[in-house]
Amino acid sequence: MLSAKKFKISNLLIFILISIGAVFMIAPLVWTVSTSFKTKAEVFALPPVWIPETFNFVKYAEIWEKGPLLSGIQNSLLITLCVTIIGTFTSSLAAYSFAKLRFKYKNVIFMLLLSSLMIPYPAIMIPQFIMFSEFGWVDTLKPLIVPGLFGNIMMIFFLRQYLTSVPGAIIEAAKIDGASYFGIFSRIVFPLIRPAVAAQVILWFMAIWNDYLAPIIYLNSPEKQTLQLVIANFNATYAIQTDYPLIMAASFVALLPMLVIFLVFQKQIIESVAISGVKG
Amino acid sequence: MKTKSNLYRKESYYGYLFVLAPVLGFLLFTLYPLLYSLYGSFTDWDGLGRMDFIGLANFKEIFMDEQFHKASFNTLFMMIGIPIEIVLALLLALGLNRKMFGTTTFRVVYYIPVISSLAAISILWQWAYNGDYGLVNQFLALFGIEGPNWLTDKYTVKPALIIMMVWKNLGYSMLLYLAALQSVPKDYYEAASLDGANGFQIFKHITFPMVKPVTFFIVVTKIIGGAQIFTEINIMTSTGGPEYSSASVVFYVWQKAFGNLQMGYASAMAMLLGIFIFVVTLVQFKMNERSSRDLE
């Protein structure tokens, strides 16, 4: 009896502590949203105003005119969709091959690909830039799209792991029935690994959407920039005029897509992240 | 016999075909640039055509380069956030691993900064750190503390960045710990409490050893990520901070390569960074091998 009571009290204490922490986690985001609705006077008010007197939507109209926010969203979408859709296809095809097909030097090739995970992007970005500038690709979206189309090693690695738990008998049976290798992939293997693919796609999508270093190297013209660069420029341009509601509105618009994706797919995302840590 | 070898030939043909794209991608976009970078680091490459071999001159200069020393020091200094994050994440995971009301919601709340764009997060924290009306100083004012102008003071800019990064990444480590804690067999705890072990003893002899592989994984991935810190520096302190006190190695490489067009020099620094990360990863592989042997 006593220990149950003790358990309850300690739970309550932990609950309170974690709640305080949660307030700290969420406060900056709430502040962003609240600031975006404020008038200039309220922005600099002391003590701070958490709930503005009137919700001022003006800035959410202004952001579309004061910077290339719309084209930023379009560019980011174009890059992420091209890369994740085509790259997922090439990655899962390769994962199937590495897991289920027999060919010479398979493991050597796989280890070679895996070794690229040890190479950080800054170590290859300079020659890559020179190479793409010789193709005339600077200030286009191509350098951000094309390498991704060839697949993602991380994804190949996880899908291959996942495929090892798929019994080979199903595949052998289809082979005897005369199915082609590609037919086996598209009709049997891919449907089987779909949950694992979905989890990896979401993670990859977020990584590309939030990328900053590669876009800042390649994209100069405002209308070519990705969403992340556009909001960074908003910040650089309008901070001098202390137009914080505008900056915060633009930042919130940039945060929103990922927030929605996360809240919708939170179970899958959290599970796939947890798996990546346990397996890694 | 003949049909079998035909079948095998067909299978290996498709095998190679299906892995062709990632292999080509690796050769073109990783291996080739890497080798080029390696060669470039021994030249006075300016990206415009000149690329004369100058031996180890770049590396000699780097070791004398005060800005590189500063950038390396800053990058390493900011890794102080790693142990802080790990301790907080483990405590949080221990708390959330209990049968308690609201754990799922907390998990989501703590994870929101992880999925948020680093650019947007940097922008809002830059403002939160503003000396006059930033959120951080207004919070400190509640306790009668007058906070500094965080990002323009060379002594506070790095701690400010560390706090922000811990805030942003805490949820990720928490999640990994939570997954590790949930995979610890329940009977271990039951056996321990039957034997009369107290909470601290259980933590020290069961929980901590069981989450050790995850701790190790987090440390290594954090070091690799921390070595490449760039976005928050670029946005929050666009010139590298007061007296270059927040510039990171990647920030300096980026400035040299794309600002000054000193591609050879920048490549040499990038190679040093690459070697550092390679060694850290290698250590992880070796340690992983050992720990899986230990388990057997």
Automatic annotation (TrEMBL), chain A:
GO cellular component: plasma membrane
The UniProt record lists the keyword Glycoprotein: no
Record domain ABC transmembrane type-1: where: 73-265
Entries under InterPro entries matching the protein: MetI-like (IPR000515), MetI-like_sf (IPR035906)
Subcellular localization: Cell membrane
Any one GO biological process: transmembrane transport
Major localization class: membrane
TM helices/strands, residue ranges: 12-31, 77-96, 108-132, 144-163, 184-209, 244-265
Keywords attached to this entry: Cell membrane, Membrane, Sugar transport, Transmembrane, Transmembrane helix, Transport
UniProt-listed PANTHER family: ABC TRANSPORTER PERMEASE PROTEIN MG189-RELATED (PTHR43744:SF12), ABC TRANSPORTER PERMEASE PROTEIN MG189-RELATED-RELATED (PTHR43744)
Protein's UniProt name: Multiple sugar transport system permease protein
Protein species of origin: Paenibacillus prosopidis
Lineage, broadest ranks: Bacteria, Bacillati, Bacillota, Bacilli, Bacillales
From TrEMBL, chain B:
GO biological process: transmembrane transport
Source organism of this protein record: Paenibacillus prosopidis
Protein's cellular compartments: Cell membrane
Keywords: Cell membrane, Membrane, Sugar transport, Transmembrane, Transmembrane helix, Transport
Superkingdom, taxonomy of origin: Bacteria
Listed Gene3D superfamilies: MetI-like
Pfam families given in the database record: BPD_transp_1
Record membrane topology: Multi-pass membrane protein
Residues of the ABC transmembrane type-1 domain: 71-284
Similarity comment: Belongs to the binding-protein-dependent transport system permease family.
Gene Ontology CC annotations of this record: plasma membrane
Name of the protein in its database record: Multiple sugar transport system permease protein
Transmembrane segments: 12-35, 76-96, 108-129, 159-180, 263-283
